[in-house]
UniProtKB/TrEMBL annotation:
Belongs to the LDH/MDH superfamily. MDH type 2 family. InterPro entries: Lactate/malate_DH_C (IPR022383), Lactate_DH/Glyco_Ohase_4_C (IPR015955), Malate_DH_type2 (IPR010945), NAD(P)-bd_dom_sf (IPR036291). It comes from the Eukaryota. The lineage of its organism: Eukaryota, Metazoa, Chordata, Craniata, Vertebrata. Residues 1-28 are annotated as: Disordered. Residues 11-25 have a biased composition (Low complexity). Residues 1-10 have a biased composition (Pro residues). Residues 330-490 form the Lactate/malate dehydrogenase C-terminal domain. It holds the Pfam family Ldh_1_C. Keywords: Oxidoreductase. This is Malate dehydrogenase 1B isoform X1.
Amino acid sequence: MVDPYSPAPAPRSRASAPLSLSAPARPRRPRCLETGRGVLMAKFVLAGRADCPYYAKAELLADYLQKNLPDFRIHKITQHPHVWEEWLEHLCEKNKWSHTTSPIIWRELLDRGGKGMLLGGYNEFLEHAQLYYSVTSSMTTELMKMIAQENLETHVEKELEGESLKGLLSPLQVWITSASAPACYNLIPILTSGEVFGTQTELSIVLFDSKDAEEKLHILASETHDLVSPFLRSISVCTRVQEAFRQAHVVIVLDDSTDKEVYALEECIRSRVPLCRLYGYLIEKNAHDSVRVIVGGKTFVNLKTVLLMRYAPSIAHNIVAVALGVEGQARAALARKLRTTPASIKDVIIWGNISGNNYVDLRKAKVYRYESAIWGPPYFSRPILSLIFDSEWVNGEFVTTLRKLTATGQQLRGMLTAHSIATTLKYWYHGSPPGEIVSLGVLSEGQFGVPEGIVFSMPVKFENGTWKVLTDLKDVEISEKVMTRMTSDLIQEKLVALGDLINFQPYQSVSQGCHNKLPQTRGLETTEIHSLVLLEPRRPKPRCRQGCAPSEGSGTIPSLPLLAAKLGFLGWWLLHSSLCRCLPSVCLCVSISLSPYKDTSHCI
């Protein structure tokens, strides 16, 4: 396409052309026309899909012309392949152009206020360069594809850098509800440390609570300023409901404090609905489209999460419940038993109701850097159930400890609640450790046989700014009886809250080591929701090859089970060999429980 606004060409000094370009000994350039307003100059704009080979070829040609012609200016625009078509359609509609391929090239006449005139695509630009500047391109297809791939990688890197700079220019809006709660006091220093959202992101924190708590909020805000955090742009207080969650990127929902007395469990459940309905409406109305809502605390965590999803349906996938507090308590109990650190224990799964009937699953749990006869590199791990020989402790003291903590809410005081919320947010934004299982309360879609429509804690992983349920895990099947125990209360809580069920009937468990009585309470602070920490019952003890029952009959040595447990497999084998040589006629059968799911009988 011939441009009528281009003046006649004129010779210029010799310039060397790149290897893939063909140019005359003296490249020509157009003369600049002198007008009453000055020099007439045109700027070319080259736009294309970041991975387009023809854009790469046109880009190299334009760079050569700009380098060798002082009056030639080029401005380049790349778009990600996912948004290219939409961007091109909007551009053509705005300028009343007709173009459907990549690249697109137009001229902006500087003396006319930058008015654009479409030149065309790659072929038209190549024809224009050859006609007016006697320059053409002979780039090979392989080189075109290679440069196109480099362009795409560069474009993605620039987008990430832009997001980081955008975070500095426009801080991340973090809203904390019930900000007068003790958990908020512990949460703010973690959020402003730069470990949760990254050191390239500044925060603007808003403390939201009732008018009665305004004085406490101002004191907390003043103390937060004293932290002098380089990642905190501002902190403010909000007590006006109409302004709640305005442009919020993150909403942290803590336990709401109330002085209202409730005399029945049903009344306590229904009291959650008005506030969740209000929060859901305001988040839908005022918050950012990609807002992330995280629910933490110690009372009705699953119920509040499912109610928020109901009243804010457009962001339901971005509403989750924190289960890391219960998981952390279980890991700490196991670490005390094994005399190691809680951080070395991984992949403990919490199923079910985070603040009620839940199932602590140790079948995938592993311990790293454990001091024993078997050592390995840092990534070497051993299954927890192969190290805890005392199955009575797992089904007894371990269950009782977690049940008592969940019943009183002591395992989710301010510090643990804050750390659990901050860790979940960190994983959400930056991804969870590779290969590690994380427990999270999400809306069930029927995974693992869980009824749809309830919020249920299950194993997930975080990656690329979102979470994914680990449905491909093996050997994590849950029996129908156990599933009923966990889902019964969740389903009833939802039905009672929505008015579809009048009376709440707690699931009555008769399993050993389980307690599931939900008493009617007077006052929110004394509400008890007992934990149901379930483990598979031990199987009947096997008999030895000679038919005798373990640890029975004459010739048994009562101290051998304890001794074998301390010695481990290697020591037990050596003891077995010695006794067989010294006492060949004596049959001593000892049962050593390697896990709460399996007993192993050794005949000596």
